[in-house]
Structure formats: structure tokens, C-alpha cells
Task: structure prediction
Amino acid sequence: MSDLVKLTVEGREVEVPKGTMVLEAAKLAGILIPHYCYHPSLPVAGVCRMCLVEIEKQPKLAASCATPVAEGMVVKVQTAPAREARQAVLEFLLINHPLDCPICDQAGECELQDYVFQEGRSATRYDEYAKRFNPVEEFGDDVLYVPNRCILCTRCVRFMEHVAEEAVLNVSERGDRAYIGIDDGHRLNHPWAGNVVDLCPVGSLISKDFLHKARAWDLDKTPSVCTGCTQGCNVTLETRDNTVLRVRPRTNERINRHFICDEGRLGYPWMNRADRLEAPMVRQDGRLVATDWDRAFAAAAKLVGSARSRVALVSPGASNEALAGVAALLNKLEGTGAFRVREGAEAPLAGVPNLALRKERAPNVHGALAVGMSRDWAGVAGRAAGAGLVIALDESLEGVALGSAGLLYLGTVLSDPARAHAAVVLPCCNAAEEEGSFTNRDGIVQPYWQAKAAPGMARPAAWVLSEIAERALAGAAA
Amino acid sequence: MGYPHPPHPKETPVLSKHFGEADARTYGGWVQRGGYKALEQALGMTREQVVDAVKASGLRGRGGAGFPTGLKWSFMPKEVTKPHYLCCNADESEPGTFKDREIMRWTPHALIEGCAIAAYAIGAETTYIYIRGEFTDPWRVMETALAEAYAKGVVGPNAMGKGKRIDMHLHRGAGAYICGEETAMMNSIEGKRGNPRIKPPFPAQSGLFGCPTTINNVETLAAVPHILVNGADWYKAMCLGNPKSTGTKLLSVCGTIARPGNYELTLGFPLKDLLYDLAGGPLRGRRFKAVIPGGSSVPILTAEEADGTVLDYEGCVAAGSMLGSGGVIVMDDSVDMVYQTMRLAAFYAHESCAQCTQCREGTAWTTKILQRILAGQGQARDLDLLLDLADQMTGKTICVLSDSCAAPVVSAIKKFRPEFERYLTNGRRSA
Amino acid sequence: MSGPDAPAHQRTEQLPRVFVGEERKELDAVLAKYPTKQAALLPALWIVQRKHGWVSPEGMAETAEVLDVTAAYVRGVVTFYTMYHQHPVGTHFVQVCTTTPCGVCGAEAVRDAFVKATGSKRLGETSPDGNWTVIEVECLGACGFATPVLVDDDFIESVTPEKVPGIVARYR
Result:
């Protein structure tokens, strides 16, 4: 007996594994059944009653998120009883929901707006009655709760209890007095708490960081990879006017499911720093002087060509492509390239296997290791002073004794050691401004894409290094 | 027994035979009255034999759903691989119903014995008796009786010396009608909010603490010892109407009537006789107007409809209502049907657990519309709106609290529409 | 007021710990009846309410601690069940049923009689002398004995407005 079940949804036949819920089977048939409380990463609640569908031979409408498929089942989503039931749910939800759209951050990406527009009534019959009113609450350092907008889908409660495994949210009271409650002594500051804002289908749980910052429809969205640690969570960078305004998770079942931690979520302001290197510079008469790329490349190639011993001090946040470019410039790889990585406390998302904010707070530690860079910072940096050439890739070099080594500095900002020692300074893009790839702690290589334009004359480090290599090679041949 | 009134000759006192006898509450007094013979007998039978006896008797759940009890027991796994549990539903909160409290406070050992037999039949070693928090008297009586039962070895690690463990615990509710719903009860016992669960899974597969569980009402369990001692045929023969409705039922008569109380009747008994003969008819100078035969969650009958109703499961359905819990609420011509409909809607709005959208918002909205009608500000479309809301609140939710709010509202508007319309036309705004 | 009955942030003295001595033994006996600690929550809250007179924030926090659940979780349960007092109440707590079966038998007059006889200003508000809180409740399951009233743990049946002053006097 096969473990697959065949059923029909809105006339489309689909075959799914036994135990699949009708709502998921419908997705595979290309049909989205409207719903709120259901989420693939949360235990089924079946409370919103939005996903009601008609199933042939069953007298009552069924909640498709909680109904397992059966062989030969015929599911109808758009028949009158099902549509009327969903329309009724929407009307019920709107009787206490305030007309906040003009001031609500969720507008434009709100599932209540979407389904009401699609299937709801054009006018409510709940007129001249008072709506329930409760003041806004600060749940945590970033999360705000607007009780009036809450539709009690309980996604947030279930996330904290079953995925974060820290039940700091509850449903309080009963009936239409119910609201999401929090204990006074325990704020919503769990390292993964920000995900409740994504999960909330409406603008009830919102982020203070994003409060009134931008309209959802003004944002451009670019797929990227989080630069916070070695987990490699997939994210979307959301930009407007060439500024990153918000970071949200991108679904990746293998690496981060539907989630990112708050460090990654809120740690994007550095992508918008204004104090950037905007022009290539070469040292003339003891001072760094801005110049054009050609002259800068020439100086860099000469620097590279004339150095017998070369040392590379790189950032574990650089792309695979840039790191490969650095490796190509070193004569030999052993003991000549190293990185140091900031560490922080590990913060797992308890309910998901192999998902945590990792101790090593850089996205490409493993990419660096893969091209031959080593963790032996002390050893390699100790040899910097005696080397002919030190190549710095997005590394400040604070605390490194540089002696009389020639310094080729590639970076996004000018560090003090670079200002004091660099022979050539080349402005590079940060991870939001280029295409590239990172390798996560499990060895998975993931691409990221360009979300905004780089400032001034900054260019991707990988391109800069390949230009230098080409010229250095040509110079050597000459 | 029509308790607290003297027993009426037309009653069939089985469960209520000893109501009012203080001595019946003690172990000794109960044994004198034939108690615990059934348990002894059951422990000498196989589980299947006990289940079959109850199946054959035709006993149906007396809490309201009327589901065949023996069939429900047979859903439990035959092999015990995880602990099995029995829950006794003593939450009795359905307006109009007050029979389980009498069983507990007059014949606590009857319930203990019924639970013990049921637990044995379904392979459960642990029983929880969920008593609503407000039942302070029944709690005290049950506590004393249970301690006696343990002391006498009737229940405990070696029940009646037959080598079976039968443990029983009282669990106190804390004020929530919805905990009378079987899955909500299980959540409440587990220390959670009393939210009903989605089914599947069904309790017999995965119930209390994830283990196979059966939930039965107090009155249902109290009938079990009688079935064992007197035989399934004896119980089945007690039938005045439809053969699918056998045995006796405690009808809790209340409201505007001369002699309210619990009357034990053979199923199939005419409602008219109960109202006018046994319970003494209307109060002086009044006529009956409306009767709800099965607790507030079933459709309201007019007095004329009640006159033709037979008190069994099928008979009440034929009359357009349900036997439900058997809480017979009687309303005479002094009662404002609109006000009481609002009061019932307010009850459901207060008790809604808040999970399902239709129930959470719909019960409150229904109450508000009715309050506005009563305040003289009803609009012409309000009655149709109430009917439409009731339709969307029926058959769409995890449990039937929402449907239970809709039932009295729909039947009141359908059968007493002129009373509603009087509020609309006399009000300050009409069209 | 800042005595033991005031809300937490106004109190000058701490409420005593609940689960010590006899109450701890009682909790242990309760825990033995269930396979999980969480299942002892409703019984534990009854113990808290008996000792403090209401389910105080300290009581909830202590219960969370002994049962290995979060305080937020406990609060979610407490606010679901209407018999747990979420704030201090009068020395005597009166619950009058007014649902339809009792409603048609004059329950509302009984309710109003209690408010008057206890000197309370209104339903739900503790009387000025602090001795009484009267509330209206849903069906108490004694419909044939209208109107039933709970005064603390005493279940009194067949109450009429005339009987109310006598009942109140018994508790003075």
C-alpha cells in the first residue's frame, strides 16, 4: 500500500503523503486557502476558523488546517457555504478591529486587509457599537503589542511556547475580553522573540525599530544571507532610497526554517554607515591622497609584485570570492593568511534542530578556512611586521604590529592603523552592496545579492582583487 | 423522587431512590441499600463482558450528547500499552440542570461504584472526578465518601481484594462552563486553560496526558451498577417510547412552575404529564408560554409544542428540540422572552473560551444587539441579522458552545417573533 | 491603602510564602495524584487563594516556581477561571446566580437585596467596611432551588429577597 493519498481540490488532482493536512495539499495544487492561525512551523490550533472548506460527503464545513487528507476526498474552496463562512469570520474579526490602516505598519502586507479585499463584505453590520479598547503595551525591547488589532490567532503564544520553548506569552481572560498577556516580571527579550512580529498576520505585534519608518509597498526586497554569525540564515534585505530599512527571514527549511534571531534582525544599521571609504587612495609624501582606480591598481600591483613575503589578514565576513582573490595573491598558503572572529554567547532556538545564534559572529568563517586562511591570528599577525606585504581585507588591524611592511588595505571604512600605515587604500562594498557567497558552518555555500548601490567609487572586493592579480601577473611577465 | 418533593407514583426511582436519606451517604448505609454488589460482580467478569452488558442495556450519555455509553467504552484500546483514564464529568453547568449534584450529595457511593466499574471496563487504573468549583457541598460529601471507600478497600491498589488497582481522585474546577465539554475538561485536569481540543485525535486514542481516555457524565455512571445487578434486559425494558431510548432519566424541572425539582422518569414519558401532573403545572394565575426541555443549549419549545413532546432522545428531536441534559426550564406568560433570550446570550458570551472567531465575537455581538433591542433602539434588520449571525455560529467551530448560543436565539425569534417586534415598533427608532 | 490587601506595587509588607509547612505537604499530596507537575496547577491556585485571600502576583510567581512553569503561563490559567480572584475581595464573598432559570424566579431581586443588605455601593465593588463583595454569576447548578447563593463556601438554596438580611446578619 502506497503512503501517498490522491485527492481533488477545486477540481485539481493532487497526490500527497498520508497525514498531510488539506490546507497543505491545496498549496501543492496551487490553491491558497485563506487562513490566519495555521503556520507550517507551529502546532495546529484550528482556532481562527478562516480555512473552512466544503468536503464532499461531509455535512459540516471542515477546518482544512486540521483535517488530514483521505483517498478520493473532494475539497471545494470556492462554493457558497465556504465563502460565506469565511466572509462571516472576516466580519466577526472586524467588529473590534480598529480602522487603523492609515497609521498601521502592517498596511500593504496585512493578511486581514488581503482577505477582506478578496472575500470580505464591503460594509460592516456592526455599526454604532463601541469597539473594545486597550492601550498599547511594550512587550520587550523591540516588540510592541497593540491589543485592539489582535485577532487572537495565538501564533505568537504558540511560537514562544513550542519553538522558543519559553512560554512568556499567554492568552488572558475569556471570550471577547481575551488578549495576549505577558507576565510583568518577564519581558519578551528572548533572542528569537522578533519572529512573533513576522508571524503576526496583522499589525498587532510590531517592531519598534520599524515603527512608522516606511510603507511596505515602498520597499524593495533583495534576497541575502545574514552576516551576524556562522549559521547562515537566509534573509531578505528591504530597502528604500538606497537604505536598508528592515531585515526579515527568508524561508529555508534546512538552515533557518522561517526564522532569524534578533541580532540578525536588528543588526543591519552598519550597512547604512555614512563614514565610508569612497575613493581609492595612495600614500604620497607621507599622506594618503585620493586617486582614480587605474592609478590605485597600478600602485597595488607594484606593491604586490615587489614583495617576496606576503601575509594576509582578512575578515571572516568577506565573501568567498574576495577571500579566493586574496588567497591567489599569496605565494604560499601555509601560515600566511589568518582571521580573527568576534565571539558571543550561543543562543539556540530550542524547538528547531541545529538552529542557533552561533558563538562565532561572522558569516564566512568557513569560507575563510576553505581557502586556507587560519584561525591562528596571533601567529600570522605576529609575522606581519617582518613581511614584505600585508594584505588587509576588511580588517581594521587594530593591535597588529605592522613594522615596515607594505600595507595594501581593502575595506569599507578607514581604520586608524590603515590611515597611519597603508600604502594603498581601496574602497570596497559591504555585503548589502555586492553579489557574493558565504559558506555556513555546515559547509553550505549560499549566494547573496546586491540590495543597494555602494557609496562613491567603492567596488566589490572580489573584483578589486582580480584586477590587481591581473596587473600583477602582467607586471611579472613583463 | 421529584426531590425535594415527595416521590410521585408516576416516577421510576432508580438513581433517586435514596435522595434525602442522610444515611445513604455513608458506606455502611450504602451497603445496606445493596451497594457495591455490582462492583464485586463486575470485577469477576471480563472487561468485554462488562462493556457488552452496558452496550446491550441501551444506556446513553446523560450529560447532553446522548452517545451510546457501551459503544463509547468499546472505543478504548483492548490492549493497555499506555495508562487508560476515566474522567467523570461532574461539572454540571448547563443552565436548568441540577441532577448530578443530587446524585453526589445523596448517593456519593453510587457514583464511586459506577466510576469503579467503568474504570475497570475500560482498563483504567486512575479516575478523575471533575467537580465544578461552586459545588462545595457535593465536594465535601464526595471527599468523605471517597475516603471511606479507600479505607474499606473498595477502591485502591487492590479493589475489593480482587487484585485490580482502582484509584480515584477528585479534581476541583474553578468557574468555567466550557470545562463540561469533554476535551476542555481534559485540558483543565492537565492544568491548562479549559480550551476544547480539535478532534481528531479522539479521547479514546489520545486524551488525558496523551493517553486513551473515556469521559462520562455523573448520571450515566450512576446507572451502571444498576445495569450490572439487574441485568441489561431489565434496563432495556424500561422504555415508553423509542426503543433506542432506554432506562430512566432525571429531569431537572425548574423555572416558573409549582413544584420544581428532579423527577426520575422512564424515557418516553410525556412532557405534558411531567409539567402539569408531576410538577404541579403553572403558578397561580399563570399559563405556560415556553419550555426548554434539555438545558439552555437546545431549541425553545412553545407550550403547545411541549404538550405534544415525548421525553426521549428521538421524541425531543421530533418536536424540534433535544433531550440534552434534561434540564426542563419552564417559562410562563409573565416572562419577557426577549429579555431572557438576551440573558442566555450573555451567559454564552461570558463562558466562551475565546478560541474560535465566530463564538468569541458572535456571542458578544448577539448579546449587544439584543440589549439594544431591549433598550428600544433596535433596528428593523436586527432580527434577520441575529438569524444570520446564528447561522454562521452553527457548525463552524471547535465545540458547540457557539451553536448553543444560536439555538435559543433562533427558536425564540422564530416562535416569539411578535414579542421582539413589539420592542422594535415601540422603540425610539424603527425603520 | 498599603496593607496586605493592596495591589503589589502599593503594599508595604510582603505576603507570606504559600507552599511551606502544611501547605507544602498539601501540595505534595496533590502532586502525587497526577503524572505531571503542571496538572497540580488548579489545586495549587486554590491553596494560594485560601492562604492569601486572593491569587496574588506573589502567589502566582511562587506557584510557577514550584510547578516548573512560567509565571505568564500561570497568569493565563488564572484569568481563564472566574473563581480565582485577581484582586483582593471583601471578607465575605457572595455569588448570586441570575441565569434564566433563576432569572425568571426573581434572582435579580435577590442580587439587588444582597447589594443593599451588605452596604455595597454596587455589584463587584467591596463594601466600604471591607466585609463584603457581592457579584452576579452564571448558573450555579441548583436551578430547582432558586435562587441559590454562595457565601464563601456555604451554598445556600432557595434564597428570596426577604431572607437576605437574615443571611447577611449570620455572617457579621
